[in-house]
Amino acid sequence: MSENSVPNLHRSQPSKVTAWRKYGPVSLIIGCFALLAVYVTTTTPTIDTTTSVAAPTGVGAESTADIEDLPPGVETYARAKKKGIADEIDWGSRCDTTLGKLALPLWPQADCFKPFTGDNGGSTATGVTEDEITIVLYRTMPNDPVLSFIYAQIGNNDTSESTAATYQGFAEIFNKYYELYGRKVRLVPYVATGNIQDATAATADAETIARDIQPFAVISGPQLTEAFADTLAKNKVLCIACATGQTADWYEERSPYVWDVSRNADQTQQTVAEYLGKRLWNRTAKYAGDPAMHDTTRVFGYIHVLASETAQALEDKFTGQLATEYGMEFAEIQTFSSPLDLPASGKDIITKMKEAGVTTILFSGDPIAPQTLTQIATEQEYFPEWVLGASTLVDTAIFSRTYDQKQWAHAFGPSNLPARSDPEKTGPGFLYRWYFGTEAPAKTSVALIAGPLQVIFAALQGMGPNVTHENFKQVLFRAPIIKSSPISAQVSFGNRGFFPEPDYAGLDDQTEVWWDPNATGIAENGAVGTGMWRYVDGGKRYLPGDWPEAEPKLFDPAGTITIYETAPAGAEVPKYEPLK
């Protein structure tokens, strides 16, 4: 859409490039942190190993019992039960045959697969042998200055070594429980030679990994450059969570080698636009901190980070979608390159919002920028509504407690993260303690680590003995959709009808939240304090297209939850004894 086709749109201007710009925005640094609390499992695929990969259209199967065709040697408990042969198979102690699920206390539970016997085909792809599947674990360089800055904001003392040790621990658990057809996953740590924005070092590291280690896949990567993922894809090495979220086309061009477990940039903007257009547009700013705004029809402003090559194009697409689908426009758009710029530029940004009569600010960016922006707004005695946009970790208590509470008491919006549950009773940290009897070495980031491994192990379990990158794609594109619960997001890949383009990122749905500055509880890092996000309707989640057009139910504690002390109905996990 052209600039002139959006009435009264104030075009944003790129911010001045600062020394910090060379490191990129903080929102990209911690893009991979959006995995928080998204517990990804994948069940049975449908694979025709005699034909080329072709993703199905429409919504995929929802039950493993509905799958007709499976690779040779592959069988699930659900399908075997439907066929009447489940009792003829020895499923082993790792399977809870009352549920047909792996006996792992992690929600949602993965399906049981029939234990394999026979010839697995040996080397079916690079990094695959008769006995092992080699996967490289990317480790950041020691004392990376960018990550050190971020970690200091949230008290994260996890080191590269403790993170690697936690990955190894989860790999040991999953090797024990998932069916890998005579093979085991071997994690090989690789320490980066440059910081997470160094494209030259990233390219060299990827070349070294592809040439010298020759793995099947790589987990993680430098989050401020796509050079690492690009180089791995060119060398036909699969990677997951190895770059910051990109556009849908970007993933498709690198198929089947680059994957993520959160959302891509297009998907996030699509769902934020739907929320704004259906829930907020042409309604009064009744939740603003300034009572004078309560009877005023909302006037929207947009503050977002603008540092990548695609940022302006994404802004144009977003504003065009709002104008075309909802007749909505922004009275003011302001951008920034880094949160470290905001002590100087933030005053002008907030002034522009105030002068434009903005009642409602949409914020898309990193979790540090609101610290400065909300402080400046209060200094200017300006108290609008704050709405969550395409943000990273802004919807966590650990960061939201650092914002000016006079402002943030009026913050709300859509969140990718599911409602939280007691980390002492559920989640990756609980799983680690359950199995090993000790805390995970990476205490702060343990919740982020299990997700990519679960995607990989589930795909390996589903594709059977013939481990290839093409079959990896077919598994994820054709696997049953993992339905959401209040404490877990819906997860699917491929052409399922939720997004216009093929989906190489897992998370599908969102929930509605609002910030309660007076609620007390445990933050994501375990710190007890004041200020919690409240999940509306107990954390009910909405798929694209499903956001209701009714007035939001905000700033009323009735029916909300801050944290589930016990698992909600339907998300309970039985008690098991770990297999050693």
3D architecture notes:
The protein has 580 residues and is of the alpha/beta class. The protein is built from 16 helices and 15 strands. The strands form 3 sheets. Strands 8, 9, 10, 11, 12, 13, 14 and 15 form an 8-stranded mixed sheet that branches. Strands 4-3-5-6-7 form a 5-stranded parallel sheet, with helices on both faces. A two-stranded antiparallel ribbon has the order 1-2. Helix 7 links the parallel strand 6 and strand 7. It is globular, with a radius of gyration of 23 Å. The chain starts with 25 loop residues before the first helix and ends in a 38-residue tail after the last strand. 55% of the residues are buried.
Defining key terms:
13% strand, globular, alpha/beta, 8-stranded mixed sheet, 15 strands, 29% helix, disordered N terminus, 580 residues
Round the mean pLDDT to the nearest integer and report it. 86
Q: State the secondary-structure class.
A: alpha/beta
Number of helices: 16
List the uncertain runs.
1-61
Shape, per Cα inertia axes: globular
Amount of beta strand: 5-15%
Number of strand elements: 15
Using only C-alpha atoms, the radius of gyration works out to 23 Å
Portion in helices: 25-40%
Sheet having the most strands? 8 strands, mixed
Distance between the termini: 59 Å
How are the SSEs placed, and which strands pair?
Layout: H1 26-29, H2 77-83, E1 95-96, E2 101-102, E3 132-139, H3 145-154, H4 160-177, E4 184-191, H5 199-213, E5 217-219, H6 227-234, E6 238-240, H7 248-253, E7 258-259, H8 265-280, E8 300-305, H9 311-326, E9 332-336, H10 342-355, E10 360-364, H11 369-379, E11 385-388, H12 397-400, H13 405-408, E12 411-415, H14 428-436, H15 446-463, H16 469-478, E13 510-522, E14 528-535, E15 541-542
Parallel strand pairs: 3-4, 3-5, 5-6, 6-7, 8-9, 8-10, 10-11, 11-12
Antiparallel strand pairs: 1-2, 12-13, 13-14, 13-15
Helix pairs in contact: 4-15, 5-6, 8-9, 10-11, 15-16
